[in-house]
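Good morning,

Both structures are done.
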Amino acid sequence: MTTPIIIMDWAYLWIHYTNRWYNLFPTSEYGETMFDTHVYYFEDTVEAEEEAWTLIQWPPVKVIADEGVPIMIGEYTLAMNHDIPYDEA
């Protein structure tokens, strides 16, 4: 297959795919299939957000990458836990 496929799911749900990615999406049938995840963890400061990424978000991303599955971070935020009025966005 020449058209790439991207599957989006949350990294913390990787348990459903662990050691099964290429059985679920065989390259011979689907071509190279990429896993897309989003990284959001809302803290009150950029520093706390970055620390949460390091401690909470990145470990499952590393597990996925270590399994040899192509992975991309499709969305992330440093917006923290603040409401931004639409007229200021």
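Second structure follows.
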Amino acid sequence: MKKILFTILAIYLSSSFVLAQELDSQLSNKVSDVIIDWQANTYTPFWYQGRKLPIAGSEIKISITPLDLKKSLKYIYRWSINDKLFKDWSAEKEIVFKMENIDISINISIGEREDIKTFIGDKVGERVTILKRLPYDLLLVEPELILYSENNNFLTYPKRLETSTGKTIKFSAVPFFFNLNNINQLNFNWSVFNKKISGEDLNPDKLSLFLNQSLKGQSSYISAYANQLGELVPFQTSNNILIHAK
């Protein structure tokens, strides 16, 4: 009888200890440095080597990699987003979620599981010792459209362009950070010298503009616009270059 009562008491105390251990654990330096990596599924051109940034509605993949691989075999992780539990303790070092229309704060807890046993060696539960907490913020951006001037297939980014009449100049509108996989999901529009004009038939993101003699001495902004097709609240962005015909 005494053995049974002691076992019941051990179970009760151990369950209370689990809660106290998780809430009140003093974080230590047992966890070595870690690498946090993330990527949004937004569109960028093939030559872009930076990070794909999120806009509202973007899917985000975030992962954590401890540098001490031997120790990390025992680690478990808990993920919270904006102070709400997203994924409870598990060995998964990666989550995927969708951004809403607000910036978010992520909190990653790293811990270890330990068995709780009675004095006679029977396992009656387990506790989690939190080793480290890692706060991480993700900020929303807006889609961007960069307007380039093309010269022998080389892109430049002038804000003002002076060129002679009687020649054709080429422009390319390059979108960044839209929630799409293919540039064909965007609608492009152009305007110059107070007229709306169309891009190339097969490549509406590109424009070939011939400057005739009547435009000599005139200046105008050439503007490009892009908006996402099929969106209830479409993302739209624009950019322009001032051109002067000599």
